[in-house]
């Protein structure tokens, strides 16, 4: 899903949940709902050694490149479990996790509609096994 849609849907969700969790926590949920995709930029930098944001955007919009089983660290079950564990100590991590799970719901819907549901790896452990 394009970032502009994650930002739009995240903003709508953030506004809707203000009465339930307050403006500060809903802002955290909103920011997490699209900043999770910063791991795409991190992956681009690690693979290309290029720090250009513009080039990274071009890279991910280039449909000619097949990207099977790429690891995006913030999109993994292990990262979500870490946030859940940290949430025991501070509720801010629960709100970050809520934003991420909201984001992931839209990612799953979008990828399923496009037939990309088996492209991404959602576990660091599985990624490591596939690399062996």
Features of this protein?
single chain, 132 residues, mainly alpha, 7 helices
Notes on the structure:
It contains 7 helices and no strands. With 132 residues, it is mainly alpha-helical. It has one domain. Helix 2 packs across helix 6 and helix 5 runs antiparallel to helix 6. The longest helix is centred in the last third of the chain and has 23 residues. The chain starts with a helix and ends with a helix.
Percent of sequence in beta strands = under 5%
Radius of gyration: 16 Å
Number of helices: 7
Q: How helical, in percent, are the residues?
A: over 70%
Q: Give the number of domains.
A: 1
- The overall strand count is 0
Helix and strand string, N-terminal first?
A: HHHHHHH
Largest sheet: none
**Beginning-to-end CA distance, first to last residue:** 30 Å
Low-pLDDT segments, ≥5 res? none
Spatial shape:
globular
- Mean pLDDT comes to 91
- Alpha-beta classification: mainly alpha
Quick recap of the structure?
The chain is mainly α and 132 residues long.
Q: Helices and strands in order, then pairings?
A:
Blueprint: H1 3-16, H2 18-35, H3 38-48, H4 53-61, H5 77-86, H6 92-114, H7 124-131
Helix pairs in contact: 1-2, 2-6, 3-4, 5-6
